């Protein structure tokens, strides 16, 4: 099912932490059969997401550079220092993104080369197999073509697995269920998500005033090439009477986006019950975190600080600056009286 934006009016339980429940290793075993068509789709979506990531941070870099130029004459050195640190952090992150994108391009190019070689070996095997049994040289050529086909297939599977390990992370936040007149106070639901070997099970309760309380709110999934996100919602009525509301599969290649996005999933066929999730894609996984992974969020903090500084005249020294000026003045007096 396609994911469409939807924002339900529910509240979340506070104080939860992000869970990392990977039941598989960072690098899963390579597949036995390559999926070139699916890999093409994921690669195009991944490149689109990386391009958007670069554009967002490039705009933030230009915005901060403009603030520095406008603030050099009437701002304190401490604030300019913070802006300069933020600019350098974004520049490092942009270089990291560009290197990451070039690495993905190299892997995909190598994959395409192995795919063309595999197609050629497949055609040779087909030609030798359909013909009449010939000489010894023909049989040896058939064996060589079959060997090449197997080798190119294994190479494609290895490259596909390596490219999958470069997809980053999906940070999924539970926002709640929306069912209009379907949700009632006292109802309890269980949500089970399966993404390859990764699992996430959480339970929630509908309280008065349409509030919802869930025992878990966040999960980190490693993106996969060929797998879809399976979501199963069950209404818990009694110990032995559970009603499956819906069981759907969702496309994940559309989640490669630069900014967090709220998506809604129709749980049942009529669409009267929806599951709302907030998905944030990080192009780097937990083992390859850059130093400025959240530069855009940090920039908003700098902007708030900028407005705070502007509430007072630019030439008014702060307490720290006053202490510095006092120490300089005392040092000058000591030097003047020969006590330095």
Features:
5 helices; alpha+beta; 5-stranded antiparallel beta sheet; 2 domains; 340 residues; Immunoglobulin-like
Can you walk me through this structure?
With 340 residues, the chain is α+β, with helices and mostly antiparallel strands. It folds into two domains: 36-165, no CATH class; 169-287, C2 domain (Immunoglobulin-like), CATH 2.60.40.150. Helices cover 45% and strands 20% of the residues. The chain is built from five helices and ten strands. The protein has helices spanning 36-71, 77-130, 136-164, 295-309, 319-336, and strands at 18-19, 169-178, 188-195, 198-206, 212-214, 218-221, 229-236, 242-250, 261-266, 274-282. The protein has a five-stranded mixed beta sheet, with no helix packed on it. Strands 5-4-3-7-8 form a five-stranded antiparallel beta sheet, with no helix packed on it. Helix 2 runs antiparallel to helix 3 and helix 2 (77-130) runs antiparallel to helix 4. It is flat. It starts with 17 loop residues before the first strand and ends with a helix. Residues 1-26 and 290-320 have low confidence and may be disordered. This is RIPR1 regulator. Residues 1-36 are annotated as: Disordered. Belongs to the RIPOR family.
Radius of gyration: 29 Å
Structural class: alpha+beta
Number of domains: 2
Helical fraction? 40-55%
Characterize the overall form.
Answer: flat
Order of helices and strands, N to C?
A: EHHHEEEEEEEEEHH
The major beta sheet can be summarized as: 5 strands, mixed
Region (Disordered): 1-36
InterPro entries: FAM65_N, HR1_rpt_sf, RIPOR3
Organism: Pheucticus melanocephalus (Black-headed grosbeak)
Biased composition (Polar residues): 1-17
